[in-house]
Amino acid sequence: MDITHAQLDTMDIQILSHLNEDGRKSFTDISNEMNVSVGMIRNRYQKLVESKILHIVGWADPLKVGLEAYARLNLKVHPAEKINAVCDQLVKIPEVSFVAITSGNYNIEINMTCKNNKHLLDTVISKVHAIEGITDSNTTMYMDVRKWAAHAIEHADTVEK
Prior knowledge:
The structure is a single chain. The chain is of the alpha+beta class. It is 33% helix and 19% strand. It contains five helices and four strands. The protein has helices spanning 10-21, 27-34, 38-50, 83-90, 117-128, and strands at residues 69-77, 96-101, 108-114, 134-142. A four-stranded antiparallel beta sheet has the order 2-3-1-4. Helix 2 packs across helix 3 (38-50). The two termini are 19 Å apart. The mean pLDDT is 89.
């Protein structure tokens, strides 16, 4: 994975923290709370978006839109040369919300959100396990999700480099 880390200063981190708290917070409100000009917030915001550090998304609570079965699946792929092809197919499945290549006993981890357990089972059998190369899986059902979004950026300036 080739990632170039951007240098975020305290102001960038504060802006990101405000937007993590409320993605629709106005530049005026942020500038008032940070005691800086609206123009400075607008310029920093634009820089964060252009550099692809900040992504603007609308997130719907799965439970409130009728998606009541949420699970993590660890997938074993054989031969290993098929891992990328398997990932390419997994990202196309609408019920799959997260795909990562992992270390350990399994090669890939995915998260799935479905209407109910039957929908989850049908999707796993007909879409996931139908992918050539997947030889084994381990499923963990999330019974009660306590936090959906991470606000780790607030602590980015405290991590030693």
